[in-house]
Specification:
Blueprint lengths: L4 E4 L2 E4 L2 E4 L10 H22 L2 E8 L8 E8 L4 H27 L4 H34 L14 H35 L1
Antiparallel strand pairs: 1-2, 2-3, 4-5
Keywords: Cell membrane, Membrane, Transmembrane, Transmembrane helix
Protein name: CASP-like protein
Family: Belongs to the Casparian strip membrane proteins (CASP) family.
Length: 197
């Protein structure tokens, strides 16, 4: 005895009546999207931690009067002494937090709500701008630490505080990679929208 029902392509046929079977949400999160968001969040967190642990003490010879010998003074360089470093730290913490939140929203949304997807793309662009601006500001001040500035009478600092400068440079590079990952996310989303329309 044959079955009365034939199943094919989500449609159940029973004699002359046809019924559409609702399929569970078959939209999937693109794997690269979630992985890139987690990577960007992790890199931002690592950059913030590397910078937050940046501190060095060195003994510097200071000449008060040219005819007297130099006085050795211990000097401590801390990351929060520079406003650009504070901006850099806060920008990376914001980017890390956003990366985690956008990963959760991406999993929850699964590209079903265009409004949420559009909002995520806009905030991805904001993170790119925020991270690139913080990297640029900190790089400019860091370059003065390496080179000095004769017009402002700023001396080189990184020849004395080598570890401090190296750790700050490492944080800049890691944050630069994180901002590039957010930028890659934006490009991939634009390409995805272009394919749809």
């Amino acid at each position: 005895m044959e079955s009365q029902y034939k199943v094919g392509d989500g449609v159940i046929e029973s004699g002359r009546k046809e019924k559409q079977v609702a399929v569970a949400n078959n939209r999937k999160v693109r794997g690269y999207d979630l992985v890139l968001r987690v990577v960007a969040a992790a890199l931002s967190l690592i950059a913030a931690v590397v910078l937050a642990t940046d501190k060095q003490t060195a003994v510097v010879a200071v000449t008060l009067v040219p005819t007297l010998p130099a006085v050795n003074v211990p000097v401590t360089a801390k990351w929060h002494d520079l406003s650009t470093s504070v901006y850099f730290f806060v920008a990376n913490v914001i980017a890390c937090t956003y990366g985690v939140i956008s990963s959760i929203l991406t999993l929850a949304n699964r590209n079903t709500n265009k409004g949420v997807a559009t909002l995520i793309i806009i905030f991805d662009l904001v993170m790119v701008a925020l991270l690139f601006s913080s990297v640029g500001a900190s790089s400019a001040l860091g370059l003065m630490g390496y080179e000095g500035d004769s017009h402002l009478q700023w001396r080189k600092v990184c020849n004395v505080m080598g570890k401090f400068c190296l750790q700050g440079t490492t944080a800049l590079i890691i944050s630069g990679v994180a901002s590039s990952v957010f930028f890659l996310l934006v490009l991939l989303e634009i390409l995805n929208l272009h394919k749809k329309y």
